[in-house]
Amino acid sequence: MSDPYKLDIILSNNVIEEIKQRIIKHHELYDSKISSILWEEILYKSLIKNNLKSEWNMGGHGVGTDVKCEDISISCKSGIIKGKKIKKLNISSYRTTSLKTIEEKINYLDQKHEDVIFSLVNHNNEYKIYVFVQPQVGQLLWKETKGQWKSIDNKTWNEFKIAKSMSDQFWMNLSLDHWNMWGVKIYDL
């Protein structure tokens, strides 16, 4: 993972509390869930409020990085928890339409586009931030099925797919039962 010391500064108790207060204010005003763009803004403003050197280009769609803080590139994602027996964090990521072969797509996915992913998840009206580095998928066996390519990491139980019908978008289904095997930090809000 990125520099753990910097991550501890970025997600200090003060920053976490500021994020929490901004989420509470959002729900006092609105019934809608927090979208990815709102999550970016909440994170950015929480970092600035805590005097951390941060950058955010609202509406910018650069590859990977949504917010930069203390020289760490952060991709902000919203995610959902799925599954009854095995809980998985479901997150969409890059669109890979411009890459023609599965090998090109996998090579692209394994390149470093950000230092870390911050995924904001509302599960049963409880918010958490899942912080992790995107898992490498190039060493996995990929199979083409109807409308997608799929792969499963048998050690971590993480599942990955590239959905053809969705602009060849990359999806991650990350096992929360095996979170310690793929290096996630979880922050309760």
Written description of the protein model:
This protein has 189 residues and is α+β, with helices and mostly antiparallel strands. The protein has a single domain (4-188), classed as ECO RV Endonuclease, Chain A, CATH 3.40.600. 27% of the residues lie in helices and 35% in strands. Strands 1, 2, 3, 4, 5, 6, 7, 8, 9, 10 and 11 form an eleven-stranded mixed beta sheet that branches. It starts with a helix and ends with a strand.
Mean pLDDT reading: 87
Q: Tell me what portion of residues adopts beta-strand conformation.
A: 25-35%
What class do helices, strands and sheet pairing give?
alpha+beta
* Terminal-residue CA separation: 22 Å
Which overall shape is indicated by the principal axes computed on the Cα atoms?
globular
CATH hierarchy, class: Alpha Beta
State the helix count.
5
Q: How large is the radius of gyration?
A: 17 Å
- Segments where pLDDT lies below 50 for 5+ residues? none
Encode the helix/strand succession as letters.
HHHEEEEHEEEEEEHE
- Biggest β-sheet description: 11 strands, mixed
Q: Per CATH, which architecture?
A: 3-Layer(aba) Sandwich
How many domains make up the 3D coordinates?
1
Strand elements, count = 11
